[in-house]
Amino acid sequence: MTTHQYDVAVVGAGTSGCYAAATIADAGYDVVVVERKDAEEAGHIACGDALKGASDFPDAIPKSQLEPAFTNTDVDHGRFEIPQEDTVLEIPVPGELAVIDRWEYGRCLIEGADESGVEFHYDTVVQDVRQTDGGTVTGFEAIRKGDPVTYDAEIVIDAAGALSLLQDKADFEDATFDTNVRYSQFCSAYREIVEVEEPVEWDDALVFKPTERSAGYLWYFPRTDTEINAGLGFQMNEEPMELVDDLKRDLRGRPEFEGAEVTDKLGAALPTRRPYDSAVAPGYMAVGDAAGHVNPTTGGGIAGAAYAGTYAAEQAIDAIADGRTDDEDALWEYNVNVMDHFGARYAALDVYNIFTTAYDIDDLMALLAAIPGEKLAEALYGGSTSLGLGLKLKMAVKSVGHWGTIRDLYQTKKAADRLLDHYESYPSDRSGFEAWQQERDAIMDDIYAVTGAEPKY
Length: 457
Fold this sequence. Notes:
Helices cover about 35% and strands about 25% of the residues. The protein has twelve helices and 18 strands. By secondary structure, it is α/β, with parallel strands linked by helices.
């Protein structure tokens, strides 16, 4: 069996993996990225292609290197269609937006990491994790182009995506690493790239539409005015949807897609849950989708993944320099940086995901139709929003017959605000972690009591 040795081994050539690897290579360390796809297919993944935070990327692979993949930089808002209420909400979205060609973006990422000195091993499928008797991860075993191979590393960075195999194989019994992970916390999604004959009227908007059940939504994101990323997804704790058929049914009902041609089809799973409580273990860190680093209400995760990969790399560099790669405490600051940057906000947003699982779709759509677009945007992207007395009265008038849902939403919002405050006090070291989790779980119990939803964790 061939054995490769590196300072750091990264599994997965996506956003988080490439940023982690490029950051490490820039610091002068030996790093490899192993990727199960071949060199041509690497970077080709199912994605909505919408990018929030398009103006801001870490230095290791700057925005200028990714811009060839930006196909539509004129998008500036969301458009939420609510057929049940015969309403369309125009939703302002904070920050710079863009729609990308995800495959081309993937190539740009890999090229940027390659230029930093990262080594790529394609056609490599991980089979098992290597650990010491004390639980420190020291590498992994894989099959590369049909042959068994072993990778030894000071640090393994898991960027292998949702429901990562590495986490199934590793023993985290004595680590803080979050193992409270189930399929019900994830979404199954499918998307097609559709070429239309005439420019769409909404080429400056990200279009969202609820599915027939509240557990999912459809999207239409314009790569250009004639090339549309059309897709949908549903929560895995719900009765499965016929993704392909349901998308085709909606496409057939939209006149702008008459005569359209489908040029690409892909499906995937993605996390629609809070970020992992802890994504570190001795010798090991998880990043991006593999650590729940996705906005659970929109499914957006590119910007968060780029920074998560960077933060993990910076911590790996420090741990290697200090000779402490087997010390979980030496990696803890990675958790702190993630929670400080976006993790607290994503955890609060997950509360609204939980809320939607407990209510009828018509109630929810009537409620959405009553909320001003700017307040909806604050809730979707900021984790909280303010509801003054005047706004509450207007919502009550517009939502006659749904007042119970409004009352519950208000109570849920207060609980989400408490949760956000708690996450903003994430412990600076692992000594306070257990107490922090206990208080967080008590807040979650209140959220389940208010919503009547089934516990998610």
